[in-house]
Amino acid sequence: SSARARGRHGSRLPAVRPGLGLLPAGRGSAVPEIPIGAIFDSNQIELKNAFFLALQMVDKSRFKLKVNYTMTNVNSSHSVQQSICHQLFPWGAFAIFGSTNAFTVDSIQNLVSMFHVPYITPGIVKAENPKSQDYVLNIRPRHGKAIIEVLEMYQWTTFAYVVNSHEGLHRFQETVRIYQRDHFYRDLNVQLIYVANTHVAYPELARLDSLLKSQSRKHVVIDLDPPEVISDFLPQIREMGMNRREYHYLATGMSVTDIDTEGLKHSGVNLTGFQLLDYKNLKVKDLKMRWEDLCIQKRLICSGPIGYPLYEIALLMDGVEVFTRALDSLLSKPDTRRQLLDSLAAMRNPANRTDCVVKDDSAPSAIASHRLRNPNVYAYHNLGSSQTYKTSHVGELLMKEMTATRFDGYSGSVAFDSNGFRSNFTIDVMELKRSRFWPVGYWHTHSGLEKLYTYANATNHTSSMKNDTTMIRVVTIETPPFVNLVVPKPGEPEPTGNDRFEGFCIEMFDMIAEQLGIKYSIHIVHDKKFGAKVSEDPVKWNGMIGELLSNQADIAVASLTISPERAEFVHFTEPFLTFGISIMIKKPKKEKPGTFSFLRPLSQEVWIYIVAGCVGVSLGLYLCARISPLEWQVELDEESPPTQKVSRNFSLLNSMWFSFAAFVNQGVDLSPKSSGARMVASVWWFFTLIMIAYYTATLAAFLTVELLKTPISNWEELAMGKNGILPGTLDAGSTKAFFTTTNMKPYKQIGEKMEEFKHQVYVNSTDEGVRKVRESKGKYAFLLESKTNEYHNNLEPCDTMMVGQPHGDKGYGIATPIGSPLREKLNDAVLRLREKQVLDQLYKKWWVEKGQCISDSGGGSLSALAVINVAGVFYILVAGLGIALLMALLEFYYIANREVSKSRVSFAKVAMTSAREKMFGQSSRESTVPVEPQLPPSAQCYKRDVQSRQLMQSPTPIPPPPPPPSSLQPQQQPQMFQPQAGYGRNCGFAPSKDDPVSQRDFTVPVHVHYNNTSNEFQTTASDGRSFLKGGNLM
């Protein structure tokens, strides 16, 4: 029976659950049932579930597996040893799967070696004394050599090493010893930082920052157990401000891509690490999906900082498959099958069962237990030689078969050496750049570190910048105006060396090289391409990127676009120019303004609103004048018969005339009197003042500009294929990659159209694309960087143009291999040139000053107005004259027709007479004697009265009368003035009721005297009133 024991603190040993996890194999009762054991930490519920998931996924056609698992404290040597005892006696496990850590690995390997039972673990690997691990199968690879070679790659001679465990201390010693021994770094300076509590490591981080304060580049190796605790450690680095650009961290764990780096993104800090799992592998993807489904089903935490890392699950899966493959191989061979079945039968015999007891009277400390060689394990009773031999021999068979197993597992190629360590495996080297990790190389057990990309030698570059003994190899590509080949003038020799090139990038790099004190040589890329990935496995690039990766060049200086795909393989400086993707089309011919172009300063809607406002103001004036009494007036109608007439100036037609005259800034004789009408007129005058001022200010521009009507004006119209225009771009480059991979509309449709017509629209060079635009008669649009577009539009024959807004905000940068020390110096130099606006001056020189076309928006002299510019005004003038003549004829007809109705004379005679009078005055061929019309008596009296008033008011002086006759006696009385015949009768005091004039006018007898002194007539009425100076009644 199973033994139970109590520890020093009274803790009960973990309960054993036999029989759990019995899995059928489908071969009937003849299939043997093989017992196995499993030991997991109490906090490793996820690992236990992953173990049973692995058992379900492996092939068990030749056997059944009976699992006995124990949940215990793997940090306690006593608990782990007791759990192993329970798995062996009485369970009789053929093999044990379990966890380990730095505190218990020695105890485990000594105990299982004593009983010859394989212990398969994905946990901590102890590299010390490999011979003692005969029966421990380590699924976790040892990558200490990979760490050393990465340190060598970066040429770290001064760095800090952070550990938190005894195992970490051992790895630190081994790393420094091997690193110094194999690479002869006698001046190696390494600072050890021990972190007691990774959850609160602020004091240790402050000490670390202080130790590295004098270093311009601060290098730190982070070696923590378990590696997952780095997720707690990195946030404290950010809080301490140690995520600056000068820091470079190397994490020694095997799943750096699972680390939460949210606080380090975009901070400039460098973080390098290792990655065991290939997440692009289909098996790994399937495992991840199965594991996530199980986590949801079991409600486990399987991701995030506190979740269990997937690579641990993968290692456990591979461990189970190693055991089942080995067991299946032994059962498939008759001799080994017989040995396994005999051993299984002996273990089931109750007479052969043995008790296993662990004494717990010492409770060794962590470091002491690490050095144990003879643990307190005792076996009692019934261990005869035959049984002992059979049990140990099965363990040997299994261990030998497992170490000989080879297959491709979830963690890569699975193979072991004779000591049970992984061999023939590959681990990727990853580097954090911007917001994600990118592979920079990989390490293999046989070939060592293989760099996917070319790393510049730090020592050579540093010395070259000091003593100018090394030439920097610069690769470029001819793309005017960035890089041009110099064409010598007639009679001049051919330029050589760097003098063969000129352009924006050449002048810029000359300034940078002068600042850094380096020498360089420039060559053109052999395939004349910028750089695109041509194969995935192995990774291969063409163009300038390919030359950087193949060590044919040290720097790429050209109009090289900074893209995430390229940044995965090379490093870029800060952009020296920014741009967007733009559209180049053939420039259409300019159109002259239309006949009515003078209407263009105002839109059609505005003109409609102005006409409506004019009508509205006219109606407002009309209504205000009609309502207000001040606008009405009484007039005397002097026609026959004379009457009083009440009228107003602002009739409907006069109101409209007033409104129109005010709109065109003309005056009329009409003036409003009432407050309401004046308010209407005031707001209308203000309105017309603003509108006329705006119209006048913009009219000149609209009359002199020539319209440029483009077939497309934006990306949407290009995607729709308006006017049959096909888009195209360079056959290799970032522009093509964007359109063929994006999911944004309308750029996705443009990419699909380019792929549909790829044999027609893709070109090999920018010059070819520009030439295709010019020769395609407006049916081809070339997509390229906006800066290059602007340059070619300024070249003769000036028949291309850019339409629409550039898409995106990209930049051109200088590329270097990853790890090159030149990158930071180049970056600083570019920033200095930008701050001093040197790059802006270079841009102006190569784009503006060297342009060959006159800008359409330039400030040249204004062109003279052509007839077409003002033809509409002339048309309106002619039309207005015609309409006025027509209206005059209509008025003539209307008046003549009214005269015909009054005089009963024929229309022709009236029209001819009226026409002669209006055109020539009185006819010379016929004298017309006016006939005095017969007036009624009262009207005649009124007429004479009017004539008398006019005579008396006339400014012409009345001549003096002749001297009186001598026969006139002094006594004689003045003769009474006698009215003319009929005057007294019709103009007396008895007015007629039917005569309105007689009701108003009357006469009285008057005496007329002539004053010789004043030369005036003086009349005196019989009632005493006098008429003086023209007959005014006094």
Describe this structure in words.
It is a single chain. By secondary structure, the chain is an alpha/beta fold. Among the domains are: 33-140 and 298-414, 3-Layer(aba) Sandwich (Rossmann fold), CATH 3.40.50; 144-275 and 426-432, Rossmann fold (3-Layer(aba) Sandwich); 577-586 and 706-812 and 837-856 and 864-886, D-Maltodextrin-Binding Protein, domain 2; 597-696, Helix Hairpins, CATH 1.10.287; 973-1034, no CATH class. It starts with 32 loop residues before the first strand and ends with a strand. The longest helix is centred in the C-terminal third of the chain and has 37 residues, at 867-903. Helix 1 (45-57) links the parallel strand 1 and strand 2. The strands form eleven sheets. The chain has an eight-stranded mixed β-sheet with strand order 7-6-8-9-10-15-16-17, sandwiched between helices. A five-stranded parallel β-sheet has the order 2-1-3-4-5, sandwiched between helices. It has a four-stranded mixed β-sheet with strand order 29-30-26-31.
Give the helix/strand class: alpha/beta
Q: What is the global morphology?
A: elongated
What's the CATH H-level superfamily name of the domain at 33-140 and 298-414? Response regulator
Q: How would you state the average pLDDT, rounded? A: 76
Number of helices: 32
Strand order of the largest sheet: 7-6-8-9-10-15-16-17
Q: Report the portion of residues in β strands.
A: 15-25%
Give unreliable regions as ranges.
Answer: 1-29, 361-391, 453-469, 923-940, 966-1003, 1027-1034
CATH class of the domain at 33-140 and 298-414: Alpha Beta
Rounded to the nearest angstrom, the distance between the terminal CA atoms is 159 Å
CATH architecture grouping of the domain at 33-140 and 298-414: 3-Layer(aba) Sandwich
Number of strands: 36
